[in-house]
Task: structure prediction
Amino acid sequence: MKRAIFCGIVASFLLEPGASAHVGSPDVYYQGMAGPYRLFVTVRAPQMIPGIAQIEAQVLDGRVSDIQIMPLRIVGEGSEAAPPPDHMEQSKSDPQFFIGKLWLMESGSFQVRMEIDGAQGKAAMGVPVAAFAQRTLRMQKSTGAVLSVLMALLVLSFIAIFGAATRESQLEPGQAVPPGKRRRARIAMGAAAILILAVLFLGNMWWTSVANANVRDMVYKPPPMQVTLTGGNQLTLKLGSSYWHELRKAEQLDKIIPDHGHLMHLFLVRIPEMDRFYHLHPEETAASTFVETLPAAPGGHYAVFADIVRESGFPDTMTAQLELPETSAKDAGNPLTGDDSEAVAAPFSNSQVNSTAPLGNGEHVDWLTNGQTLQAQKPTLLRFRVLTQSGQPVVDLEPYMGMAGHLVILRRDLSVFAHVHPAGSVPMAALMLLEKRTPGSADSMQGMHYESVPAEITFPYGFPQAGDYRLFVQIKRNGQVQTGVFDAHVEP
Amino acid sequence: MAHSAPYPASAPAQSAVLGRVAEIPWYVWGSAIAVTSTTVGLYWDISWHTSIGRDTFWTPAHLCIHFGAIVAGLSSVYLILSTTFGKNRGAQESSVRIWGFYGPLGAFVSLWGGLAMLTSAPFDDWWHNAFGLDVQIMSPPHVVLILGIFTVGLGGLFLIVSEMNRAGAAARAKLNRVFLYAGCMLTILLLMLNYEYTDYTLSHSAIYYRVLALAMPPALVGIARASGYRWAATKVAGIYVGLWLLALWLVPLVPAQAKLGPVYTRITHLVPLEFPVLLFAGAAAVDFLLDRLAGRNKWLQAAVAGAGFVLVMIAVEWPVGSFLVSPLAENRIFGTDYYSYMMRPSDYHLNHEFYAWEKTRAEFWLGMVFAFVAAILTTRVGLAWGDWMRRVRR
Result:
């Protein structure tokens, strides 16, 4: 039988230029154990590298008296010798809240190493941080005004000094200025004006080129991704290399390592309604080429998010858009296998903020908000409880790819995409790399290696900006992945 | 001491006043202190960034730079205000006038430099926020800062030279020493500005000689010409090499620790700047050739002295570069085994091999031709500038 070949639709544009690991969500939220202490750590990434990261630590369990922090690379050179640690400042109003600052001098995969002292002794843990420049800042109007005034003063005084130097500087003391000197001074001032204007013009050209080179070399760009659909259901993703990555080959940003069992976590979301959601795991068939046989999926326009983690623990999220043709399960599409999963949701435009999401058969997931509104940039433990039809906590949750749950967060305009776990927004592969490096902190990967999974799951996160969000909470029961879908509004 | 009596306009009274300029005025010393402080501060700052990393406005290196600016700025303001309104009003006769204010030309030039330094502060602050902490010397705000520092020094040079040109023989000799010293500080500032291009690992590339040809002859020839003394350029370059070697040997005795991560190289002491450019060789060529060609056509002088400068620098720096990349230079004398905290051990080899700036042979030779042409032109500029300075009297 002749196989219809649908070849083509290739869309590979970035949803947001300069988007990062995750998309539009550069800050790190992490919940982990350091010996007997449980901490919720927020690392507010600097806009520019080198720049200062703000670190906040809320002690959730235990009594901590001092926390010291230092930056280290996770692997390779720079992972051994740390600069002298900085003490975090203990809050006077909440002694279990600490705040500190760290310089991040280079882009790449780092850890904020935390050395903790408290009632139960000393302990340590590392929080992975992907350091990258996000964007440049425009000059403030007030700064621009001050600089303009100073520049005008410098220009005018430069011309005046040239005039005076020609007119009088070589006269004997007391000698009157001859007319010829005055004339020459006027010519010199004209020449000085031309000279300084030329210097300003050339300086501006040079500064613009330096600034553009800085943006090109320093501001993070995800690798390009070419997405091709053939045969109706064969999705091929070819990853390129961005100039940003090319410049940083020494920082182990090339090879891809498995992140909780898979080299790539691929998310397809039908837009704009976000009513179809797929969490897939393509296989690498050739270098930087991934292939996935799609399940039967309704046609439409899809946003594509592909998560990978590099050898150094640095995460990249590539984005693209894809047009899927109308197909049926008979013509195209395989049944979901392995860890692949899908979800169907109500159109985003018709939905309202909800705190209960059905899982089928009357079972549901509750979002335990305690009536609190969500605020942008505020570190929050998002708590979900999986309940039976009768409202009792379920007892049959299983680890899904080693974790109690997965949470995917999307802003309505797709400017934010985050793939979060109970340990937070850090890549689990980076945590595994750290685990090898931080003896005695094996418990740091909270949320992994469960013997049994409790019915209540928490995800540490902070919404980067105000707006409407859709959250996909994924859990596993009886070998089946179930997804609860929530809509939320985040206040400024 | 400052001049306290008014300058009479008549010629006999004028010569009487000139005779009194036997002492070195306080503001000449002020200029020397200011330019020394900023130069030392700049050297210290580069060393601080490579050894310790973290900085604030209040690092000793920054304070040194700003102290120099404050000394120069305040003395200039005082000189100008006292000449315009105060007890030194009599000195208006030996001043230049700008926007109704009177003062020596050097004071106005120094003040302009101070204003440029001031301008660089908000510019640099914004640049840091927009593009991150400095990882390069030649960022635009730094160029404004260095231009300001350089102009402050230039103002000091004008102040000294105007005193020299009015002084009798004895005072002139004394002032000449201060002048050459201040000129040396300016030369060091210029070399620090071009530090990234005068690394010994580039000494087998044309860029090294292009940069030296562009930057050095105007300063060396100008200062030597204005000084009027024999071997002046050689002395200036000699002081630079001597001071730089002292810094290379003494700076690593100061304990230090890197305070920024990642720390690729453990730091126990301050890292000095690299082995100096042996500039006195080129300067000696310039002095010798200009002395031989005295009174001849200025373009001929420039052509011979400029080309001679580049030839001698190649003849000296090429083999010295070969020595410096060799294991024989990995010691405290030549200091090629000092590494910044941010240098990866896997990159240490870069200190011990040449970097080919020009990627093709044609680019290299074109660069070398450029170096010779540039040296001739900049030597001519130096001659004109030096001759102009010899006539400055206010």
